[in-house]
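INFO worker-7 received task bundle
INFO bundle size: 2
INFO processing item 0
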Amino acid sequence: MSQVEKEKKKLLNRLKRLKGQIEALERAIEEDKECARVLQQATSCRGALDGVIAEVIEDHVRERMIDPAAPKNDPRTQAAEELVEIVHAYLT
């Protein structure tokens, strides 16, 4: 996965936030918090991880499937952009 430094930093920041959410989930379980609170924290973690996955897929598609020299109306470019939109719709 070769990303520009900006994207790499963005992903690492997302992972740090996710780590904090997972630690909060762990504390909630250790402290015997009510089930609704534990489930809410767990779904927050899942959502955060889905966001990371969506970003990695998007970066991969843009890096490997889109030719920067191709015109915007190129069918392959349009299909790749549509794929990115679909991934984001399902994962974020």
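INFO item 0 finished
INFO processing item 1
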Amino acid sequence: MASVGDLLAAAVDRTGLDDFGDDAFREGLEILVRALRDEARLNARGEAFIYDRIGLHLSQRLQVEDWHRRHPEIDDEQIIAPLFGLGLPRTGSTALSFLLAQDPDVRYLRSWESARPCPPPSAVRGDDPRIPPDQRPVLVGSRHHVPTDIRGPMECLDLMALDFKSQIFQAYAQIPTYSQWLCDDADFTSTYHYERRVLKLLQWGEETRPWRLKSPAHVLSLDYLDRVFPDARFVMTHRDPTDVLLSVVDVYADIVGGFTDHLDRRYLGELNVTQWSTGIARVMTFRSETPDRFYDIDFRAMQQDPIGEVKRLYTWLGEPVAESFEAGMRTWWAENAEKREPHPKADPNDFGLDDNVIRPLFAAYVDTYASAT
């Protein structure tokens, strides 16, 4: 297995660059690599995929710094009042992000650029090699769990991974020490500063448009996000936590299970119950101090009237819904009806999930936001 030094050296050799920028990323990288070595029990496929992924993030980080060095004017770009989607996973947030992406007047993080932001899109002439000709995304797991489109929106997880503080790594491997550090001790200040740095790069040379961004993972680090994006607003999606957790652990098992021959479903159950109950508690505290910055959408309301929910969100934002935007949303919703949020078929007992344990952890959350949605 590769060491931190090996991975850094390989990225330098691959790119011919040697400036990784601020050193804050090294703490997460070291904890991650140690957990992969000592805990993950990866199979050959897992080792090949995950270490290649780390190498990709390091190489992209080197290139981000190189673009900023050669074009210091990139830092003059302004990221103004972005809208972040957050909440529990499996609450319809991905479908919402695809609907919002139908608005031609906004900018979103496109799937093909999320893991490879360099070169910035405005610097590419002709066909971008990051967009496969058949437009099919590369899926890690064996099943489609959410809507996917290589030109569609992607979560912030790959941008956060450039600072090596991202839930994306624990979706690939069983790494409890990294996951505990991420939940309890990680300082995400540098993570969001780096996300802003990359957003400026992606925006550079394009018409400035408001950003629509999304990741359930932001619930763990909302205070840090707020310090870097103090004018951000939030749309929060909601669903019964017991339905959510069974669905999300099933996703984790599908992906992690491809990378290890020693899948521990009960560990995945405990991990997700702990992290999401902690994250929701943090969001509730944050919201109690800044309630006007949140708009709420219930999963059932989204299923029944998706266009109406987006229109009401835009009314709250103070922005119009153009006819072309509404038509795009209706087309996308109709075309993706069969792929939308499959019901979980897993057995909760396999993951040690007990509704009588889960519900008290989320009781205050459910009581508080039931009326809001």
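INFO item 1 finished
INFO post-check item 1: The two ends are 48 Å apart (CA to CA).
INFO post-check item 1: The chain is about 50% helix and 5% strand.
INFO worker-7 idle
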